[in-house]
Design goal:
Helix content: 40-55%
Bound molecules: 3-isopropylmalic acid, magnesium ion
Structural class: alpha/beta
CATH class of the largest domain: Alpha Beta
CATH superfamily of the largest domain: Isopropylmalate Dehydrogenase
Strand order of the largest sheet: 2-1-3-12-11-4-5-10-8-9
CATH architecture of the largest domain: 3-Layer(aba) Sandwich
Largest sheet: 10 strands, mixed
CATH topology of the largest domain: Isopropylmalate Dehydrogenase
Number of domains: 2
Order of helices and strands: EHEHHEHEHEEEHEHEHEHEEHHEEH
Number of strands: 14
Shape: globular
């Protein structure tokens, strides 16, 4: 089959890790007889350098004309990079938020799975790590605090900043439905995370999630307060299956979930709308401190490419091949620096890509 892939290399380690994901995808083309046509799309700091804005209308159109978009990472060092001297709405992160909104990517899937081979990189107590976990964080991605009105101004002589957290029932309903549908394919449990003891938006969230759950009687639903969820993630992560939550809570909890799975460099993600289109990116960030050194972990990006094959292209055998190749590389003892442990072989970004490609 043939597919058109928009490719956003971005900034920092982005170009290096996207190169490795494309390397693995070329192995898939070869092995399974598919053809992937790439269209490079400029976004992030590199787009500011060229156009003065992290995301142009042309980039959005290019993304829309693709079957799916594969992305590396965007942004730089927020205290030193010139990209943070431009207006806030033109900065790298704002571009990412804008493309998510423009493509209506409201459902962000972030799987956090502890590969048994990485148990020693897991910062949790041994008896917790040994039990393993397989969590899917479903983060609402186009609403809430990151998209509400915001401003900073002097009120009665005092500088004041305001951010607005707003959700309507339709935004909650569509992502909640997605959570129950995904749970039906997994272990049939949804943990909906909110702060309903304080926030109105959370009380509406809980009400709508309860309503949606009526249509999925086989799925067990629990409500968990976000602070308690943060605690339970380190105490007993094996209890979670699908974790459904709003935008900011999902941003924070998914970093925590990634870290307990060994490293942020292991966290893949898929951002989906109501069609088969999706934007696939590692959730780890641009890591400007290690950019260009050839030491970044490309696994999250490679696993994101696997999610693209599964969710946007319907190629589940091919997606399995990528996941199995990653597992094989880990059980063969190869590690990038971030997941390195005693007795393993340390490799760089490009070697890791080669090793995974060889094992498809
Ligand atoms: C993420 C990132 C982004 C977010 C930033 C870069 C805007 O942290 O994908 O988790 O908050 O969504
Ligand atoms: Mg984040």
């Amino acid at each position: 089959m043939e597919f058109r892939i928009g490719s956003i290399a971005g900034d920092g380690i982005g170009p290096e890790i996207v190169t490795e994901a494309r390397k693995v995808l070329s192995g898939i083309e070869e092995k399974f007889g598919h053809t992937f046509h790439y269209q490079d799309i400029l976004m992030g700091g590199c787009s500011i350098d060229k156009y003065g804005d992290s995301l142009t209308d042309e980039a959005i159109e290019q993304a829309k004309s693709s079957d799916a978009v594969l992305m590396g990472s965007i942004g730089g060092n927020t205290s030193t990079s010139p990209w943070y001297k431009v207006a806030p709405e033109k900065r790298p992160e704002a571009g990412l938020l804008r493309i998510r909104k423009a493509l209506n990517l409201f459902a962000n899937l972030r799987p956090s799975y502890l590969f048994p081979e990485l148990a020693s990189s897991c910062p949790l107590r041994r008896e917790v790590a040994e039990k393993g976990f397989d969590i899917l964080i479903l983060r609402e991605l186009t609403g809430g605090l990151y998209f509400g009105d915001r401003y900073t101004k002097e009120i009665d002589g005092v500088m004041t900043a305001v951010d607005t957290l707003k959700y309507d029932e339709n935004e909650i309903r569509r992502v909640a439905k997605r959570a129950f549908e995904v749970a039906m394919q997994r272990r049939k449990k949804v943990s909906s995370v909110d702060k309903a003891n304080v926030l109105d938006s959370s009380r509406l969230w809980r009400k709508v999630v309860n309503e949606v759950s009526q249509s999925y009687p086989e799925v067990e639903l629990e409500h968990v307060l976000v602070d308690s969820c943060a605690m339970q993630l380190v105490r007993n992560p094996g209890n979670f299956d699908v974790v459904l939550t709003e935008n900011m809570f999902g941003d924070i909890l998914s970093d925590e979930a990634a870290e307990i799975s060994g490293s942020l460099g292991m966290l893949a993600s898929a951002s989906l709308n109501d069609t088969s289109f999706g934007l696939y990116e590692p959730a780890g960030g641009s890591a400007p401190d290690i950019a260009g050194k050839g030491i970044a972990n490309p696994i999250a990006t490679i696993l994101s490419a696997g999610m693209m094959l599964r969710y946007s292209f319907g190629l589940s055998k091919e997606a399995d091949a990528i996941e199995n190749a990653v597992r094989k590389v880990l059980s063969d003892g190869y590690r990038t620096g971030d997941i390195m442990s005693e007795g393993c072989k340390k490799v760089g970004t490009s070697e890791m890509g080669d090793l995974i490609r060889e094992r498809l």
